[in-house]
């Protein structure tokens, strides 16, 4: 077995039917981990995705459609992972939503939804995953925060608050598990071309009357010095590194992969 072989381990990745979550799920499957998918989408498309991952990487997969804003559904999903695979060894808290508005105009229900999905859901999955991880004395908890867990942008108050909260929660989890074989870390991506970001690109293109490529370049130029998007595959490779033996003493970090955004 290689240092990163995850054969026999189970990874649950929230919000993994597309974008970053799918990239990370595929990277973990490539190392032999069974995958519990979660997220929205057409059931047939998700089944096709499961079959593709199973065939490509020779792993088992399952899917649970828990709404990450609802504690009872999260609990049902964690129980499902336990009965299907005997527990969760690698927990990737990735589910997230976004809304952009000035604070005084920010819809209260949007604030509540963003805090629930981007922050509180990670508390629920973590509290439910820890007992079995402690029993095995091995586990990896990876929280997908954001550069917005380290710095702020205007009009993203709820997102920035949730992601800063997630970085803090990561540190506390790491300290509480410091004398065990469980690690907890946060990955803080810059711009990744996910459906969420593509929507911002489309809105910008429409607003400024430019084509999609120009809108992408302008978006990157504002924040990301490399001028390139981070890819889900790059984030997946970092998650695999956290799961390797080399990651045993990486605990409580907020690791930004952001093309130089936070270095400015």
Automatic annotation (TrEMBL):
PANTHER family: 3-OXOACYL-(ACYL-CARRIER-PROTEIN) REDUCTASE, 3-OXOACYL-[ACYL-CARRIER-PROTEIN] REDUCTASE FABG
Protein name: 3-hydroxybutyrate dehydrogenase
Record family assignment: Belongs to the short-chain dehydrogenases/reductases (SDR) family.
Species in which this protein is naturally found: Undibacterium pigrum
Pfam name, any one: adh_short
Sample GO molecular function, one term: 3-hydroxybutyrate dehydrogenase activity
GO BP of this protein: monocarboxylic acid metabolic process
InterPro entries (alphabetical): 3-OHbutyrate_DH (IPR011294), NAD(P)-bd_dom_sf (IPR036291), Sc_DH/Rdtase_CS (IPR020904), SDR (IPR050259), SDR_fam (IPR002347)
